[in-house]
């Protein structure tokens, strides 16, 4: 009888530790959501649909390229350090070297192509600063992956919140001086550099000596590159899923359509931050638990219930109050974004349900299947979105996202059932 209780005890201990770390990351993510939301409202109210669309367009490029240039290293780094912390510094600096290589190649292409990729002169100039935003972002995320693998959530919380707070204050000040996009993008670049410097300082104090030798080598980098391919493909797919809608709307329709989608998506992106806090804390726990472990399965079920209840609490208000929420935050000019917000709210159910299962698959070593379904998801999304965007604008983009998530829901459920049987 006592042997049967062991998995439950392990799961409860893991769940308790997970909830402590999740709570810290949720505090960080909620605070970040409020501050980022405030920045979006400032920009939207000051610059209008078109100006906000340009701003969202540039940030979509930055976020998408960041996910691509990370090349799946963050998830791989967290998993490897969680199981072997003696080589933390070697793994950390190897991932940094790999990321810098990808950013350099991507940056050269983006710099030379920026006059053609921008939707106007201002966004073409802004795309050149996007390169530096990406560099700061990919390097910072390696440090936070190392911190998460050791359960060190407090420095992540402090750095994230303080950085976004300074970004908010700077954005407010800049908008009082001049209503232009370029200074705002330059400020984001500067804040990213400060954020990276803070993470480096904490690493030097905490892991500079205890994390092993600060070294790297070509064989280690090649080994990491090979192991990261499924994660990298997942990152590329994620970049397309999350950021392609704003970018494509800018090209297919106009900056106003991108602005409407961007304003509505700020709400659902904020809503995803709490589950993302749980996912970030859960990944190293799942990675340590071991495949086939009963405690791991129980832990998954607990997280799945929490996410489902969370979706109900968030989505129902969005369905009935979308127009009031849009008008109260972004203003009367953004009211056409109301139906977009409704569809985005509906899409949270399959999106977060799929995300929980994908988290379990990646942590358990079944990343190939999850990656294959990612291709299916993004393929359905793009095939559906392109014609829908042309005829229905931003609403068509959201429906494409929803169809992509629905397409992989059943295969993920069946795979999970086979793993847990």
How would you describe this protein?
This protein has 421 residues and is mainly α. It is built from 12 helices and no strands. The protein has helices spanning 2-69, 73-83, 88-117, 121-149, 154-177, 181-206, 218-252, 255-289, 294-329, 338-363, 367-392, 394-420. α7 (218-252) packs antiparallel against α12, α8 (255-289) runs parallel beside α12 and α10 runs antiparallel to α11 (367-392). It is globular. The two termini are 22 Å apart.
Number of helices: 12
**Cα Rg:** 21 Å
Number of strands: 0
Q: Supply the helix-strand structural class.
A: mainly alpha
Tell me the major beta sheet.
none
Range of strand content? under 5%
The CA-CA distance between the termini, in Å, is 22 Å
* Outline: globular
Question: Helix fraction?
Answer: over 70%
Helix-strand pattern: HHHHHHHHHHHH
Low-confidence stretches: 1-7
Number of domains: 1
Integer average pLDDT: 81
Short summary:
This protein has helices at residues 2-69, 73-83, 88-117, 121-149, 154-177, 181-206, 218-252, 255-289, 294-329, 338-363, 367-392, 394-420. The protein has 421 residues and is mostly helical.
Key features of this structure:
421 residues, mainly alpha, disordered N terminus
Give the topology.
Layout: H1 2-69, H2 73-83, H3 88-117, H4 121-149, H5 154-177, H6 181-206, H7 218-252, H8 255-289, H9 294-329, H10 338-363, H11 367-392, H12 394-420
Helix pairs in contact: 1-4, 1-5, 1-7, 1-8, 1-9, 2-3, 2-4, 2-8, 3-4, 3-7, 4-6, 5-6, 7-8, 7-11, 7-12, 8-9, 8-10, 8-12, 9-10, 10-11, 10-12, 11-12
